[in-house]
Amino acid sequence: MPNPIRNPLVGVLGAGQLGRMLALAGYPLGMRFRFFDPTPGSPAGQMAEQIVAPYDDYKALESFSQGLDVATYEFENVPVEAALFLSQRVPVYPPPQALSVSQDRLTEKGFFAGYDIPTPPFAGVNTLDELKSAIDKTSLPAVLKTRRFGYDGKGQSVLHTMEDAETAWQAMGSQPLILEGFIPFQRELSILAVRGIDGATLFYPLVENHHRDGILRLSLAPAPNLSTSLQAEAEGYASRVLNALHYVGVLAIELFQVGGHLLANEMAPRVHNSGHWTIEGAESSQFANHLRAICGLPLGSTAPLGYSAMLNLIGTIPDPARVLAFEGAHLHLYGKEPRPGRKLGHITLRTDDPSILGERLALLQKIIK
Amino acid sequence: MPNPIRNPLVGVLGAGQLGRMLALAGYPLGMRFRFFDPTPGSPAGQMAEQIVAPYDDYKALESFSQGLDVATYEFENVPVEAALFLSQRVPVYPPPQALSVSQDRLTEKGFFAGYDIPTPPFAGVNTLDELKSAIDKTSLPAVLKTRRFGYDGKGQSVLHTMEDAETAWQAMGSQPLILEGFIPFQRELSILAVRGIDGATLFYPLVENHHRDGILRLSLAPAPNLSTSLQAEAEGYASRVLNALHYVGVLAIELFQVGGHLLANEMAPRVHNSGHWTIEGAESSQFANHLRAICGLPLGSTAPLGYSAMLNLIGTIPDPARVLAFEGAHLHLYGKEPRPGRKLGHITLRTDDPSILGERLALLQKIIK
User: Fold this and answer.
1) Residue A253: CA atoms inside 13 Å, Cβ hemisphere, count?
2) What crossing angle do the helices spanning A286-294 and A17-26 adopt, rounded to 10°?
3) Contact B298 A23 (CB under 8 A)
4) Residue range A172-196, pLDDT digits in tens
5) How far from chain centre, in Å, is Cα A183?
6) pLDDT tens, residue by residue, B29-86
7) How many CA within 13 A on the CB side of residue A213?
8) Which residues in A lie closer than 8 A to residue B27 (C-beta atoms)?
9) Quick one: which H or E segment has residue B16?
10) How far does A343 lie from chain B, in Å, by closest CA?
11) pTM for this one?
């Protein structure tokens, strides 16, 4: 392992809230930051240098790369070409291949399958005929998704009947698609893992996630009723992905729990919304650990501190005074203008007593509505 | 209490590490920051707008004040005139009177005495004759100090004999001085208090402080063997100061423990080095609470989370990799160039088990040397 650089200048593609929380975690470690994002005044750009240019502006990427010690990304739809261009000038972590795998749902599912990580049934769809034979494979209901650029439930259609299939094909058929079998699952979970340049790997405890309208609303960490066997299964799958990709940094894998087992849904090669609770709820946060990993520093403990519930603030910001008056609530705002469906912040409710978390959470949810 | 302002723009006089840690605590609350400091590239200026000008440049102060919602200071030797100038344009907390009291050791000790807060014996000294009669009052040994602009042990001389007194007078006599009786104390403690605009007041537990060469090296929080009566005595004294000054924000008072009682040594009308442990070691940090107070937001809980030891990094920075590999250690670097005697960062060692803190601390101290 090379000696870590003192006060590294970290370049980050994307300057959203994930970048902002990376900077907040990295400044205390003496790190410096430069962001690249097409949107001026982005959440991270409010507290660090930001280069404003499209991701395919190679001249801007060239000047962005000058003097960087390491580069990373906080947005998985960054063009792989931009990451590859940078990787010829400065180490880029996680490896651009991780970006490439995760950007295409079909490649991603195929990648999981290739490493014996179970997934719901899936099939690529390029024609209406292929859609019909895909339905034979997955049966109905099933979810038709665009292969690329989907996030927060965008670009998805649930098919219950063959008529649904034809309608969805009309609407979505101009792009490469994937059909995924709809598995009745008990709950959605995610595993966050971090791997250092030296291969050292740590895992946070599984988190239970609750979505509405395709957007994450609530994470409970550690996931309630978490068995050691379920945690071990998740860690095993994450390890295969990390090692296969020679991964460096934080990786998130979203999973479905079916019976006592897990199916992989998708992965994100970056810090992840379902890991925000780690800022107060774990010994070291996912943001600090991502930076430690990519800068060649030792990883920090992923041990949870008590029990946490993370609530996303979507579309509107509650009165900060009411949130701050709530015992155990930690407010995080991203410096974004309110807009329907937009992630504007989150609140982590942390407690040492798991028996009161549910009740406290219900009270907090009333306040933020 | 007025409605708190959303996303307030907070102006801070001074852009050192205290300002830096204020910004890191305030960004998650949606706050924005503008700093004023004569030194370019200061610790806080690396992550926020910084106006570089001397504190007596009223044109620069005028433009600094434009658009601010509230102003504060992180350096108690800011000229009172600068704070008063700002207070005619924007609310300034803590009140400039607190600055004025704390800048002059004689005024400060007189202020404590005026509110029946015990102090070591003291006397103002303007002539050699006054020094001699001051010694009659305090007896020897005693400490001769400049009344103004002393910090980290600078501008102090310990007098053991009348010869010492004459020598010290030759060296220091051109400025207004104070002689303070040297009280044999068991230990040095500090109390951090925070008071909101509505008068709500909270206290952190007393902290035990260890100095070397006049600079704080180590704080233990909560102070070991802390009795409720000692805590109550400290809170009583702090309350008198807060109420007398209609104080808003965080206040620190340094105290000597003599027997089972306390003597006030000095106060700092700002966040304080002996409160850095609160970042990981308390439910809400002193930085977040100072900002909550001055922005009219509800205060956060000051309850400690386990047991903390805060070690200052003076003059040199240890290998970050070794610190980060140390279980329970949290590194904070200030973005400053190493220089002898300079505070470059700190490490907070936090644990839930007080019985291991001493041993862990001894190991950590070996590493950082």
Assistant:
1) 34
2) 70
3) no
4) 888 899 999 988 999 999 999 999 9
5) 22
6) 999 999 999 999 899 999 999 999 999 999 999 999 999 999 999 988 899 999 999 9
7) 6
8) 20, 24, 46-47, 335
9) none
10) 14
11) 0.94
As a whole number of angstroms, the distance between CA A219 and CA A205 comes to 12
How far from B52 is each of A93, B14, B34, B55, B252, CA to CA, in Å? 36, 10, 11, 9, 28
Angstrom distance (rounded) from CA A173 to CA B141: 90
Q: How many whole angstroms separate alpha carbon A348 and alpha carbon A361?
A: 10
Q: Is the CB of residue B75 less than 8 Å from the CB of residue B38?
A: no
Burial of B42-67, coded b for 16+ CB within 10 Å and e otherwise, reads bbbbbbbbbbbbebebeebbeebbee
What is d(CA B113, CA B97) in angstroms, rounded to the nearest whole number?
A: 17
Cβ contact (<8 Å) for A300 and B335?
Answer: no
Tell me which of A17, A27, A280, A333 to substitute to probe the interface with B (most B C-beta atoms closer than 10 Å). A27
Chain A CB contacts of B283 under 8 Å are 328
Helix (H, G, I), strand (E, B) or coil at B35: strand
| Confidence check: pLDDT of B268 > 90 | yes
**B interface residues, A as partner, C-beta within 8 Å:** 3-4, 6-7, 20, 23-24, 27-30, 32, 46-48, 283, 292, 296-298, 300-301, 305, 317, 320-321, 324-325, 327-328, 330-333, 335, 345
C-alpha atoms less than 13 angstroms from C-alpha of B149 in its C-beta half-sphere: 5
Q: Are strands A142-146 and A156-159 parallel, antiparallel or unpaired?
A: antiparallel
Structural domains in chain A?
Answer: 1-92 (3.40.50.20), 121-181 (3.30.1490.20)
Q: Please enumerate in sequence order all residues whose Cβ is within 8 A of that of A279, keeping only pairs 6 or more positions apart, or say none.
A: A21, A25, A285, A287, A330, A332, A348
H/E run at residue A293? helix A286-294
For residue A1, what pLDDT is reported?
A: 44
